[in-house]
Amino acid sequence: MKAVAVFPKERVLRVIDDVPEPRIEKPTQVRVRTLEVGLCGTDQEIARFQYGTPPEGAKYLILGHEALGEVVEVGEGVKGLEPGDLVVPRVRRPCPRAECRPCREGRPDFCLSGAYTERGIQKAHGFMAEQFVEEVAWLHRVPKGLRKVAVLTEPLTIGEKALQELEHIQARLPWGREGKTPLHAVVLGAGPVGLLGAMALRRAGFATTVYSYSRPPDERSALVDMVGGRYLSSQDVAPGDLEARAGAVDAVYEATGASKFSFDVLGALGPNGIFIFTGVPGRKEPLQLEGGTLMKSLVLKNQVVLGTVNAGPDAFEAALTDLQAFTERWPGALERLITTRYPLEAVPEALAGKSDGIKRIVHFG
Ligand code: BGC
Q1: Which of 74, 193, 263, 337 matches a 20 to 30 Å C-alpha distance to 251?
Q2: What is the number of the ligand 1 atom nearest to the C-alpha of 122?
Q3: 359/219 Cα distance (integer angstroms)
Q4: 41 and 68 fall within a common domain
Q5: pLDDT digits (tens, 9 = 90+) for 278-328
Q6: Are residues 168 and 34 in the same domain?
């Protein structure tokens, strides 16, 4: 079967057509026909040989971690899934260490050892192949009505996990979330992770500002308008003017990977505010920070800075519930987010070039 693979040693990304079709080897496994796979910044970094590792002993890594597929066969021990069902897989798999409690309890997104694998990213082949086999425990059944948009589940789970963390942290305040309503969230970046996060924040009741580079009006700012958010360009409004323009910032959901920009906005975080980093920066050169000012503000304003990566089963279920809700509340918005569709053969060129549009999707026949 065909797949898109990166050969890091040879520095090549290409379509290969001699991958053996995967077979069910355990009663708890499921064979899935791939329908769609999303492309993201992580894939782009892997395609540029800056990130990602092939499985132990393999020359190549099959890409793809944002997948939607259709079940074609289930092992005899599989309950709750049958051929024809739509599924989305989670990305990270547990490390082998007995002492890693998160991995032993099925939460490798909080792995302690760092020896986890990630399908399509770290030491495990991904889903950008015509078929894949997966343990049923790592699959989520998708309602048929979400067929057109469920490929957005995984990028939305980043925001869902962030929201869950945010709620836990807000609960530290004596009055929980009730002290100020609505709370004001600023989303950094208007890429798919940012826009999906903005939708989740809006649905959770936050007044939401999306703060990004490009100047409105464009397709991104139109989507923000559509979901009842406010869009501001960093070319028009400096981080120091955010509060005056949009109100005190109670939470920041960072979805850019841009470290300088992010730390500038950290300086604009309001009292009791929570700043959540999700981006993995490409920057290698040092960044100068006003350490004393930031530390003073963190202390005098009771602020929290948090990083979050990957997502567990609860975030995947929340994402599927939210996709359904977004479809009902803002018809057509999710479809507008998917701006480009490629066949498998076009992926190497697409990942080599500049990314245009918002979300790019690979479709399989
Ligand atoms: C993926 C996560 C993954 C992270 C780090 C992201 O693009 O969505 O699942 O944990 O990269 O590899």
Answers
A1: 337
A2: 12
A3: 12
A4: yes
A5: 999 977 789 999 999 999 999 999 999 999 999 999 999 999 999 999 999
A6: no
